[in-house]
Amino acid sequence: MSEEQLFNLKTVVNNLSHRGPDSDGFFYSENVSLGMRRLSINDLTTGSQPLFNEDRTIALVCNGEIYNFIELREKLISLGYSFSSKSDVEVVIYLYEEYGPDCFAQLRGMFAIALYDARRNSVFLVRDRLGEKPLFYSHDHSTLYFSSEFTQLLHIHSTSPRISPSAFNLYLTFQYLPEPFSFVDNISQLPAAHYLEFNCADSTFILQRYWFPEHLSSSEPFSSDYLFDLLKSSCLLMNHADVPVALALSGGVDSSLVAALSADITKDICAFSVGYQGNPSSDERSKAAYLADYLGIPFLPIEISDADVENCFPDLVQAMDLPIADIAALGYYKVSQASRQNGFPVLLSGLGGDEVFWGYQWVKDTLTNATNSSRSKLSRLRSLLTRSKSSTPSFFGQHSFLSSANELSRQIIPAERLSNAPSDFWLVHNSIDTSIPPHLGVFDLLSRTWLRSNCLTLMDRVSMANSVEVRLPLLDNHLVDYMISQRNSGLRDWELPCKSLLLRSLESVLPNEVLSRKKQGFTPPVRRWYKLVINKYSNLLFGGSLQRQGLIDTSIFTPSYFSQLPLDFSYKLLLMEMWSRCHVEKTPIRDFS
Fold first, then answer.
1. Is the peptide bond before 180 cis (omega within 30 degrees of 0)?
2. Strand runs (DSSP E) across 223-285, as ranges?
3. pTM of the entire predicted model
4. CB 439 within 8 A of CB 213
5. Domains of the chain, earliest start first
6. How far is it, in rounded angstroms, from Cα 418 to Cα 530?
7. What is the pLDDT of residues 293-336, one digit of tens each?
8. Separation of alpha carbons 373 and 357, rounded Å
9. Rounded to whole angstroms, what are the CA distances from 593 to 312, 315, 480, 537?
10. What is the model's pLDDT at position 388?
11. Strand order in the sheet with 144-147
12. In which region does residue 177 sit, left (phi positive, over 0), alpha (psi from -120 to 50) or beta (all else)?
């Protein structure tokens, strides 16, 4: 590798120190160089990376956790392998030696892995099933670059990267950029549940999926007791750490069940909860405090003031490797910050329960309509004969606020910049896959868009910005596999009340007051926060980075026009402006005023 490439590697690794403040590590060979930063969670003394096999023909770095490493380690020891550490990641090396790339399907965890096999002269990049951990790559026909963060690859090919107008349109429509789209050319994100094999000899690569939910099935009927056992198993595995573990607790069912099951596992677990200045109706601290007291868990409330919203916004933008205009981001950021400051590098969260157990009524209604339509012989025949767009069940198209945002974005983006993205671009490329059963198609689309591109991406970036690892028991792949296998075998739980199967399994551990609460979600005082941020920073939009990139039509985008835009749309524009200044143009955040 050239001196410039080695310098770039060290620079990127240093820039990722927030993701791993405890140590760094490098590996160099004729064809491959690896670097990583480590956040020490398991095996604090001998778990440094990169890790190697005995003859050092395999080198590996990993971001994340392999939750079933003890089980895999015992299996590999019985096959004659010996280990040099107690690291959860070392099992991947010997699992690969034994099974080759087929081993990745045996991993239970959240992970982004890079593995170099010198004998095969190949590099493997691997991402977990639901995309909890990010992994970006760029290929320039001779070299493969990869990183846990998009912005670390942003300036590899150009000192002046250009934001894609069609990606900008999608972002303004959704408030996030749905995978697999990218804000710039030449940088892609490895799809969840896939591995990439790069051949160092000819600089080619292939992508291969390793998880096939459509193949899952069950010969046993659904069991609430078995679901409860899976929930306990997931919480048990995710409470395993050689450092203190805390949890983010709201008043909702999902975080409450994680708290209830974890309280029996981890003796010194602590709960953090976010509240807001003035105690608005959306403040759930009192509900969270009630459950913490019920479970006997120490409780640390956090209050976000209006001054926090204004002053922390530039820090939040800097933490966002990808722009996501979810106003709840500051709450997640503050919880992670408090967790780290109080000595808890691991934070458990109930994120994912709504997606796995049908917690959104509109998603259930869509699935019911899609299922009834797919079961109609006439509908199937019409679809086969016409292949018309109308045969695809509506998902995002039923939301007028999304179509309105798409129209607004097309007013401010110069028309010639969207010549390759027709007006329905946002909808056509984010629709249900009708080649698989409706419940899989809906889950796949919901996972790829809202769950992965908004929630998981946001949670990973704001937590890792504070050097905190967030673990999500409700996205454990054994739990997800069980629910999918039941649905593949005939369970139609979307026709039941929201999350009813999950609630039924928790009757023995949660008080009825918690189980019967209406869904609220993480809901800060949205309009007030929008106004605080917009009033302080909106001047940056005029003559700013987005205009310099030619993404905004200056003939119509005036202060008067901006003042008439919906608050949420204005917030999306402003966040993107500041993100572009910070990450594309490298403007220090101290200059945001």
1. yes
2. 245-248, 270-276
3. 0.94
4. no
5. 3-163+183-211 (3.60.20.10), 224-349+495-515 (3.40.50.620), 526-591 (no CATH)
6. 28
7. 999 999 999 999 999 999 999 999 999 999 999 999 999 999 99
8. 22
9. 12, 12, 45, 6
10. 44
11. 144-147, 136-139, 188-189
12. beta
| DSSP at 213 | G
Query: Quick check: 532 and 309 in contact, CB under 8 A?
Result: yes
Q: Which two tokens stand for residue 522?
A: 């993480």
8 A C-beta contact, residue 106 and residue 99? yes
| Span 195-222, average pLDDT | 96
**What span, in angstroms and rounded, lies between the C-alpha atoms of 297 and 290?**
10
> For residue 512, what are the CA distances in angstroms to 85, 292, 553, 562?
45, 15, 55, 47
SS3 (DSSP) at 350: coil
Predicted confidence (pLDDT) per residue in 404-451, tens digit: 999 999 999 999 999 888 888 998 889 999 999 999 999 999 999 999
Mean pLDDT for all residues in the chain: 92
DSSP three-state, residue 41: coil
SS3 content of the chain, % helix, strand, coil (to 5): 45, 15, 40
The string over 516-542, giving b where at least 16 C-beta atoms fall within 10 Å of a residue's C-beta and e elsewhere, is eeeeeebbbbeeebbbbbbebbbebbe
Give DSSP secondary structure letters for 288-319. Answer: HHHHHHHHT--EEEEEE-HHHHHHHHHHHHHH
pLDDT by residue (tens digit) across 469-505?
999 999 999 999 999 999 999 999 999 999 999 999 9
For residue 376, pLDDT beyond 70: no
Hey, how many other C-beta atoms are within 10 angstroms of the C-beta on 243? Answer: 14
Burial class from Cβ neighbours inside 10 Å (0-12, 13-18, 19+) for residue 6 reads middle
Cα Rg of the chain, angstroms: 24
Checking phi first, is residue 301 left (phi over 0); if not, alpha (psi -120 to 50) or beta?
Answer: beta
Do 295 and 260 touch, CB atoms closer than 8 A?
yes
